[in-house]
What does this fold into?
Amino acid sequence: VLPKGMSDFVAATPPHPPHPSAERPLQLAVIARILFKQKNQDLVVRAAALLQKAGYPVHFHIIGDGPDMPELRALISRLNVTDLFTFHGWLNGDELSACRAACDAVIMPSHYEGLPLVFLESLYAGLPVLTSKLPFLEDFPISADYQFDPDSAESLAEAIEKLSTLIFKQG
It folds into this structure.
């Protein structure tokens, strides 16, 4: 049983962006403190490298900051995917809402979470959330298509491609 109003979050219809292309790649937000041990943003970078190699048009928006930011930037540079990332730093209020609204989905690659506010806010905003398989998901009717293995860049890359197919099939 979901708390009152929660079914509205879960049933939110994703937006219908234009099909991803080199001119308008799929826009994905990662909103979190930059901390690999918990938030696992390095997985996103490894998935980005796989998607780039496959020629898949995607762009990631990193919203946040934290102790692993230098390592994140170094990994992005080392894997030669710099052009696939935009760093926004911490955003709040209207700035965060505007950035999230410009994206097609949100990615939560965490190793562990309680009930993340980013998850709830993104669903409330009508955005699909790709999330690692975490215990809190047992309380939400989230399709397995929107979940991935937090230890596998391949699993995340496949989930991103599947998400694109699901969004555009509806449009």
Remarks:
- Confidence is low (pLDDT under 50) at residues 1-16.
- The chain is about 40% helix and 15% strand.
- The longest strand covers residues 26-31.
- The beta strands are 26-31, 58-63, 85-89, 105-108, 129-132, 147-148.
